Amino acid sequence: MNAYLILPIWARFAIKREGRALSVLKDLSPDERKAMILRRINESGRVLANAVASEFGVSEDSIRRDLRELAEQGLVQRFHGGASRSRSGPRSFQQRARDDTAGKKAIAAAAAARIPANATMLLDSSTTVLEFVRALPADLQTCIITGSPDIAAAALDHPCCEVILLGGSLNRLTRSAIGQSTLTEVQSMRVDFCVLGACAVDEALMLRAENYDDARMKLAFGQACNEIILLATSEKLVKQGPFAIGPISIISTLVTDKTADRSILERISETGVEVIVAGDPVK
């Protein structure tokens, strides 16, 4: 499969119009290139480093580095000269929803208690954010905007909540809208709060995602709001992820659980982020 075919349809049209497919592929950022490589591996089962390097117009060393980073995140399995689909594969929304439900519910309740009446919120497709919606008071007047049909359906159970579902192509793994049309819609908004689920916060306190489209969407959500609330179970702190979103300091508030490493929380607090530990006494 030609690497050009892995691009979203809107990007293919743009490249065709200008007639410079190879130069566009060559100019991709490392994260964009890794996202395309990962998509190709998931679709075709394997890639060879020399073939991908030729198609992208970059060195084999660059592709080997991309494959190594993807393998370190458990997203692919390396072999001599290339990489193949991970044996475990990416986990679905339904699978992730069963992880640490007690921790997620505690975090969700603590975060939900902070939302004032008449707030407008952008919510991403995290399973912890799903619990957050369920934890909102039934009589809370609010407006929820999301690309997740699951979260939109949960919000509809709140009779005082206005629900807006973003359009776009649906990603089967995240069960949420993705793509340029969704990004453009979000970029036209300005809301009170953005509530995000954390995929990972690495040792350098950089927010990271396991999915390139998810990273772009989280960043767009954050840029469209006055205050970012990040919901993160303790296992997500000091964890790696292949796609950078931004430094932890871009968020306003972190809500986590009581098992989180307090030394990490102190480092996060020193960046100016308000840290709330679910179950701790309110200061």
UniProtKB/TrEMBL annotation:
Keywords attached to this entry:
Repressor, Transcription, Transcription regulation
Which Gene3D superfamilies does this one have?
3.40.50.1360, Winged helix-like DNA-binding domain superfamily/Winged helix DNA-binding domain (1.10.10.10)
Lineage runs: Bacteria, Pseudomonadati, Pseudomonadota, Alphaproteobacteria, Hyphomicrobiales
Q: Does the keyword Transcription apply?
A: yes
Record GO terms (molecular function): DNA-binding transcription factor activity
Q: Write the protein's name.
A: DeoR/GlpR transcriptional regulator
Q: Which domain of life is it from?
A: Bacteria
UniProt entry tagged with the keyword Repressor: yes
Residues of the HTH deoR-type domain: 30-85
Q: Which PROSITE patterns match?
A: HTH_DEOR_2
* Species this chain originates from: Phyllobacterium brassicacearum
